[in-house]
Amino acid sequence: MKAIEIFKELGIEYEEMKVKGNSTPRYRAKVEPDKLEEIIKKFKTQGFKHFVALSCVDWIKEGNMELIYHLFSYDTLEDVFLSIYLPRDEPKYKTLRHLFPQIETYEREVHEMFGVEFEGNDRLGEFILEDWNDMPPMRKDFDTVKYVKEKYESVPLVEGRGDKQ
Amino acid sequence: MSIVNILIQSTLVALYLFLAICIGLLFMGIARKVTARIQNRVGPPIYQNFIDVGKLLAKKTNIKHNWIFDFAPLFALAGVLLALAYLPMGGYKMLSGTGDLILLLYIIAIPALGFALGSGASANPNAGVGVMRALTLMLSYEMPFLLVLLALMIFYNTASLSTLLEKQMSFAWGIVALPISALAADIALQGMMMEKPFDIPIAPHEIASGPLVEFGGKYLGMLMLYSAGSVVLETTLFVDLFLGGGVVLNPATYGVVAYVVNYLVWFALIFVVWMIAVFINAVFPRFRIEQAFKFYWKWPTVIAAIGLAQAYIMSVFLGVIP
Amino acid sequence: MTDNPNPLPSIIPEKDWKKIQRMLSKRSLWMIHFCTGCGAMEMPPTMTSRYDMERFGIIPMATPRQADLLLVTGYVAVKTLKRIVRVYEQMQDPKYVISFGSCPINGGLYWDSYNTIKRLDKYIPVDLYIAGCMPRPEAIMDAFLKLMKDIDEGRADGWLRYRKYYDKYRANQMRVFKRWDE
Amino acid sequence: MKEFEIFVGPQHVGATGNMMYHVWVDGDTVVKAETHVGYLHRAFEKLMERRSWLMNVALIPRICVPEPDVNEASYAMAVESLMNWDIPERAKYIRSIVLELARLSGHLLAISGYAGAIGLYTVPQWLIGDRDYLLDLFEQLTGGRVYHIFIFPGGVRWDLPDGFLRKLGKVLDYLESRLKLYDDLLFQNKVFFERAPDVGVIPKDKAIEWGVTGPNLRACGYAYDVRRVDPYAAYPDLDFEIPHYPKFGEFEVLGHGCDCYSRMVVRRLEIEQSIRILRQIIKKIPDGPHTLKLPNPIAWKVPAGYAYARVESSKGEFGYLVISDGGKVPYRVHVRGPSYTHGINVMEKIAPGLNIADFAPTAFSLDVCPPDIER
Known about the structure:
A: 27% strand; elongated
């Protein structure tokens, strides 16, 4: 089934994204967080079997965290982006790793980089970073230059370079 | 035996062993060069391995595990030297006895055992896996190899290496008389030397060079000497069993000239045997251990059994007695 | 077997012993096979048939115990630095470090990245730098030759400095790591 | 024997770059594997939010080191989508040349990595030596051996230099003549036949669901290729086949697909197809400008919106999700690398039951490239 028909059937508003270069159509839709699981299941049964990626966007001005679930169908050759918005202060969502196993890895990354909690995913924790003790670094209010100055540039040089053996 | 005699004798033994180790290092260098040429590049100078050993022995070494670990490289090196002393190189034999062919089989296992002890003592899982693989590999190639030895013993009707050499010189080289067994022995030799496709115990991609994983500095230098010795040991074993040990002139009639000529012929022969192994090494990937085991108990064993039958038929039914 | 004293002090003078050691170690640099960063991409061409670093006796080794030369190929993330220090401390003296590319010199392209340490020589001593992003195999070969010359002249003394200023290096390392055990 | 643990990496010859597999082994069999990444994390996605649209072009090739051009191409395509730009035909063809050369070099590296993992060191020596001819072409075209920074939004940096196509033809002839040798050495090797088939099997019905893409998916028997299902650059005009299990042509079909053997043979056949594509490009390449007339690069303002562009790399689907809020810098860029699923999810799932000796070859046959996992 084409993506448009599924959207119509589910009664979701969608917009078409601009595409140059590639040639398949891409649709973006904003959905309610509690309905997302059902919608992804619906898409999965209709041929959208390739889960491409889960991205997170920190909309600091709006106070939102956007999670984008990206699906692709090898049958109809269409991309679907399903967005949900979570409150930025306490982003919390449930895990969807039972739908597509690689969601687990993406959730681990999003948890570490944006601080989004996924209930039911027991592998959240240190993934890419090690010994991290600041706020999640991909958040917009994390100042990387300040962090670099404090952490790395303050380390003193060790003398002795050029000492004779 | 007078003291002077003993002194001369032991000097000669030391010289022979020293030369054997040097030849081993040289051969390893030549192997690197030849492999490099096969791989389309220049390669290191052939004396590179001497530099490597020198560097390793001159390195500071701060690896502490336990005394077995410290002891193992010495054990391996001593074992290989002992085995070399039992093996006629160019007809000259330092230690001898009756039935030393069977004794040799035991002695050859000593260095590998020492190696295994030390690696096991390092408590590194990679080394553990490597040792297990090495022992399994030993179990695999010994089957055809024992059959080959049996064929030789039946055919030449002796279990002494020096008698074997004499009979080969007077009658015919083993490779002429028993070509099938020689083929099986060469396949077994590839595993004994741990060259590809049987370099399973030291596979760097799988277990980070296996038993060697914890050895560094001086330990590794000694193990390099050990492996240089074992190159000579294993090639000489094949040459002694099937190529008459390189003995072409009888020392009893020609004296010192015979020793020199025999030594040179032996050198040429072990070089040829080594080069065959190196060429095979360069163009084969490695087996998994259970595949190597299956392989050895299948084809070489069958070939060796045919060789054994041939030896039996020739000596018992056809009455060909050297 | 913990140190390397002169084996024959009566025959070889102490000075010559050092010379012999240097001569041997410069001609047989065993490099540890550790791709710490993107510079590892130019290592295969350097190792293989076109440039062939085995000509100089340099071969990759599988374990740190056997290696003399550590190539830090490119930017160093904090997580990698911990492993680099571990590998470096497992290597046997004398040992040498070549820092490879612009990033371990001053941060390079990643000067404002929160996860890469900027100057490598604050944490471990570096004997030689190769600049560039990324250095060509010719530059790597040149660096090897320079390192050999340095070893010959006794200037490649990073391992001695690491011994001497161990406390300071470790203090610097601990400013980036939160924990060392594990 | 009791269970023990082995760490494959970060310092290990069997790790495909700077990453670590924590492997639990029982006897000779892997019981469980866990992938640990992050050793190469440079925070690209954060840095890109701090650099202007054009400055990012210099930054992103570093994301996937063995094959950097796919990054530039997909980023450029995503930005072009937002800007609504149609790039000239010649630029599309030049992009295809660069991408195919990158694919060739990626496949040569992948095959030599696998051959090294099973212990055949002559193959890497030959293949990487031959790959240098491709790098020479890159050098002539772009000025860099590894990082090219050649494709950027609006076209490519400059036109083909004089005599480039002739030299390209020569290199292709040379490579084609060498393929026979590779076959004799690796793809017809009896030990390879012993070791590769039915090792590291991805279940065929799960392959798409697990997010497997690229040659690894085609080795499972699906003829899906981004160049076909979502064409870009000049690929709609070009004629090429998609090698997949069990269509191996002259190669024997051993094993049941989805295994190391199929993955390597698919890569080997794709080298032939890439040569074929490049030959067509040499014949067909049109004249014209190589880039659009671009606005002042410092003051680029990209209209707000979402854009996703994907490219077929030698490892699988490489995609960029670019989000703009209308400013001078990207608001958010998310990189979808193929190794992300291959290296973590797939590897963790297919590792149990593998022989420890087959662990590194399997990782190499999936062609896992750690820098595009953690970025």
